[in-house]
Amino acid sequence: MPPCFETMRRLVIFISIVLCSFALWATHQRAGEITYEHVSGLTYRITILTYTYTPSAADRPQLDLVWGDGTTSTVDRTSRVNLDNDITRNMYVTEHTFPSTGTYHITLEDPNRNDGIVNIPNSVAVPFFLETILIINPFVGANSSPRLLNPPIDNGCVGYTYYHNPGAYDSDGDSLSYSLITCRGYDGEDIPGYALPSASHSISIHPETGDLIWDAPTMQGEYNVAILIKEWRNGVCIGSVVRDMQITILSCSNVPPVITTIDDTCIMAGDVLAFDVVATDANSTSVGVSATGGVFNLANSHATFAPAQSPPPAIGYFYWETNCGHVRRAAYSALFKATDNGPQVNLTAYKTVNITVVAPKPENLTATPVGNTVFLSWDVHTCSNVKGYRLYRRTGSYVFEPDHCETGLPVYAGYQLIGTTHSLTDTSWVDDGSVLPIYHGNEYCYRVVAFFADGAESYVSDEVCTVLHNDVPRLTNVDVLTTDTAAGSIELRWLRPSELDTLQFPGPQYEYQIYRATGTPSSEYELIHVNTSLFDTTFSDNSLNTRDLQYYYQIVLRAEVNGEMVEVGASDAASSVRLEITELDCALRLEWSEQVPWTNTEYVVYRLDENSHLFDSLATTSEQSYLDAPLENGRSYCYYVKSVGGYFAPDTLGPFYNRSEEVCAVPADITPPEVPAITITTDCETVDFDWTFSNDSAHFDIAKYYIHYRQTYDAPFTVIDSFEMEESCYPSSCHYTLTGLPYITGCFALSSVDTAGNYASPTPETCFDVDVCSSYRLPNIITPNGDGKNDELVPFPYENVQGVDFYLYNRWGRLVYKTDDIDIHWDGKDMVTHQPSSDGTYYYVCKVYLYALSGIVSIELHGTVTVIR
Predict the structure, then answer these.
(1) Residue 287's CB: how many other CB atoms inside 10 A?
(2) Which of 26-30, 261-265, 348-352 has the highest mean pLDDT?
(3) E strand intervals along 671-824
(4) Cβ within 8 Å of residue 189, ≥6 positions away
């Protein structure tokens, strides 16, 4: 279809709706939503719920539903109930089989809304539009949308905070999020002129609980708000429902009731949760308290609630016998509602209590050392729906008592995951050091957590600790005595095994074989020396290049058995401490590393004193790095690091001290300038840059600034301006104005280079899109009488416009004028006859092409122009 005919068709529809709505449809729709339930395969049961204006002649025994798969169905009404206050509740139920997996936008559009909605201009002429998104994805499984248990029709009072909760219940246990969106009308577009209801303070919805709080209504009338409810499974959005609800605000002095009960809580599966829900009201003679929520709809031992209706206080009673079948990652929501009997209007209050059911901890964890491994075992969990177990380990014991809502193991406890089993009865594990190294001489502590199919975790088990048998040598020192490229030396020390099995290895001859690897721990080890006494546990390794290389050592114990020397066992490998220094501007960064079987708890940094020619301690740290500053550029500084550590076994003496090699370095200015905090703004003619540094003198080091620009998100940045402006920064706040731009749309950033030629990274970009500056607008009247004033239709001043397609029609839909001139220049004449058009109202459709961050985009304007001569 040619563009002009499509444009004309839409214009005719637009005019027809405006002119005919009153006569054909009268007043009608108030509120509603679309929900769905999975039946089987690709088949779903759809429920449409609408609330309508009872006296309206526009009754709807049927509604047309668009499935989003290219088909439409007419759905019969299955229920019609007349309520108080001219409200009718309508329900439509049908089933539909979709052709395949995919995303389907299920929509309903029905003229018209009821008349007089305060925040929807001319609401009687605005269609009612609902949308629900169904995502059929075999990788996330079958899904049903949440059911909204509280109706979308409610009342409030001027000047009193209004509360509402949709009472969303998700039978699949998916997480829900809530947000307020614009109510939608014709063709699913946002309703022009729609605004959230005015509030003396604010109106908002809690993104997790769905509590809508309007604090507070300022004017009587009917208001509509739209709530978008999204479903989430494993962090992925799997569908959404939009509720369009109506709130009637009256002038009344009633105060809403108040609910008092417990806060969000957790309970261990198998325990009973019971509590009171108390509703009070300051100015009502009776108040009722009731409850809704998924926890009351469970097939397996659901919760119960005893409602109450009485003079305040009314006390309801919640009771739930939990079991393992209730364990899941998501909390169960119990939504409590209190309703008073106010004289003008009944007001309500809501309170949501989220309840998480947690599995008990695994019991009777044991840890048994076997050679160089630890064998772990525990009891089968009492919950038969457990899918497996996670094993955690740390070095040394840690006292941890989880909070009643704290499952699994928090990071701060210092445990690391070493293994996972994948069935209820798989209750053993061998820690062989393949995930995390396991060394002799350390105490290792273990815990286990059960997990479930949806990711829920149990409480953590009690801790159990053990130590590998001390039946092999244990290195304690790899200490660099001398730093040199050829004459370096390292002293080795180790502990003899205190649990040597002398029945298996009776001796009397014993020896230690000393092995060394150079450069990396994976390098080949070579035998360098043999100590022939069980009690000779030291060795000095000389003639080494300790300045450039790191060395690794291992001690192998051998014993005489039946006249032959056999291996008893080998120590864990240990390396020297290796120091590296990075040269910075007026500073040096020291970083060091080592691979040792013991645990180093702190490090002492030493620096050479030029006067005494001795090393003095400079700092002590638990980190493996240190920044020495401020220093003098061009001057040499020399360092070494001493580690302090030991084994965690209870019977091991310590600490052990081991030094690194000595390293010298010279600070130099290789540091780029600081990236400042920046604010970039525009008045739609120029772009202003305002930036600050963390200290007053930072800008003195900068030689030049550069402005980076890109017109669209996909385009690369280019430098469009540079400048020197030290004098414009005082004391650390700087400003620059960029002028002469053809248009403002685009992204801007600032970078700099210092006097040593070091370039800083650009600041975070600030982007201006088409909505920032004045949009393209046309006047609604011209007077082409030749007086030089308002003789032509021309746009108001505009920015960022690349082109237009303008079409003007008379009241009968005939094309009177068209142009692609951005400035229009219609002088009131017919483009065919070139004669002055008659006075009256003309309708236009104008497609405007704009420079945007995503490229050239178009918007379509609809409006009228009145000709008066």
Answers:
(1) 27
(2) 261-265
(3) 677-682, 687-692, 702-710, 718-723, 733-738, 746-754, 766-768, 781-782, 801-809, 815-819
(4) none
What amino acid occupies position 63? Answer: L
Residue 545 and residue 512 in contact, taking contact as beta carbons nearer than 8 Å:
no
H or E stretch covering 52: strand 43-53
Residue with tokens 């996972």: 420
Containing H/E element for 11?
A: helix 3-25
Condensed to tens digits (0 to 9), the pLDDT of residues 179-231 reads 999 999 999 999 999 999 999 999 999 999 999 999 999 999 999 999 999 99
pLDDT, tens digit (0-9, with 9 covering 90-100), for 697-709: 777 788 899 999 9
Give the 3-state secondary structure of residue 363: coil
Query: Is the pTM of the predicted complex or chain greater than 0.70?
Result: no
Give the DSSP per-residue string, 722-760: EE--GGG-SSSEEEEEE---S---EEEEEEEEETTSPBP
Q: Determine how many CB atoms are found less than 10 A away from the CB of residue 259.
A: 23
Alpha carbon of residue 400 to chain centroid: 28
d(CA 688, CA 701): 22
The token pair that represents 672 in the structure block: 């780029």
Q: CA-CA distance, 127 to 133, in Å (whole number)? A: 20
Per-residue DSSP letter, 793 = B
Residues 479 and 490: beta-carbon distance below 8 Å = yes
Q: Give the separation between CA 448 and CA 472, rounded to whole angstroms.
A: 29
**C-beta neighbour count of 40 within 10 angstroms:** 8
